[in-house]
Amino acid sequence: MRKKPSILLADDNTAILDVVSRLLRSHQCNVIARVNDGAIVVKECLRLRPEVIVLDISMDTLNGIDLARELVLCGCSSKIIFLSVHEDSDFVNAAMGAGGSAYVVKSRVATDLCAAIDAVLIDKRYLSPTMLYHAGTS
Amino acid sequence: MGAAGLAKSVPALLWTSRDDKQLTELSEEWERFTGVSREDNLGTQWMQRIHPKDLAVWERSFSEAYESRRTLSVRIRLERHDSQYRWMLVRATPLTSEDGDLTGFAGCCIDITEEKDLAEAAADLSGRLIQAQEGERSRIARELHDDINQRMALLSNGIQELDLPQVRLTLPQRRHQIQALKKLALEIGADLQFLSRQLHPSKLQYLGLSSAIRSLCREVSVRHKLDVRCVVRDVPDKLPEAVSLNLFRTAQESLQNIVKHSRAQHVSVELTGAANSIFLHVSDDGVGFELNHENRSKGLGLVSMRERLHSIGGTFSVNSGRMAGTHIQGTVPLIQG
Q: Domain A6-137 belongs to what architecture?
């Protein structure tokens, strides 16, 4: 049996945080932190060094894509999975370009998030099947 | 320059009247304005030039000023030499003798037609902008209420139904019901997103102006089967919010006009960044239009684009002509911060 992966969840919507934590716990994941304030996401990630960060693209006024760039610049090696309500390939391109490993649309969290976690843990990329990713065609 | 010279050259109709309200002295400007000699305006002759609708106002104001010996201030229309009625601001102060008796008035009339037109255009514009905004709000409210709300009700009823003891569903029926509800929830989500995108393009906020403009062009091109060429060059990633929003709305409004009116086949949208400004150029090969007074004041789109760019210190120009396509250009300064 694999070791439980450590996961940090960042979303400013607590209802979504609840659903996602429940889902991941049942998928044998170790949710080590839930952050609902975008301003401290980077600090917490660098402090806790989770294997995977599940990051909402839109947290209040903060931009998850900018946060991901910042994390990469800070040398953070955690895999980033974006959660997003934007079902739009421009968003996918920008998110993956900013250092994301996966892009999961919120309407499909229940079916796609666990698959995304499994994929990024073995260095693969993952997109919700409803999204098309045409690299470099934005 | 003496007082007489001054009276000769100011662009105002100067006059004095006696206590019987007859005009006794007039400046030279009267001849230029009316096209007839000063003598022909003396006494009450000049009053034939007052617009018929303003005559009563004039007489009442003049009499009141006389009786109360107060300053006169009134706006009336006067006929110019070219038969055009001009709005005049008439101001006059009472003249008194050494004993304190009223001997007449000394006054002037100044042409304020242009100022009045501008003020009216501004009031008219803000009125129409408010109307347009209200129209948009009520459309969105209607969509939220009539469409989204109804389907939310359907969704919650469907969920309740699954829970009712008296409704006995077979397992396949149940599964079918759940699938249908899931589909409904996804559809509602997608439609809400579409609605919210119309209110404010989220791409602008998250992905920046370049990406939002490219996506807008693509969308218009696909939806309206139009060849839209989009070139974005040297545009900084981070722009002040007002700059990116107003440039985006200008491009959006231009494209909407093209789709609605131009019958164009080819459209070009160029967004170029320079050292301290951003330049937007939208042009089409459509039927164009004559730029005349009528559509200059009526075309809410053109006016609102101009207002938008002016509000951020930019400039806006439109060139068009019958069968000559339409070219819209906007330049917005960037303040290095």
A: 3-Layer(aba) Sandwich (3.40)
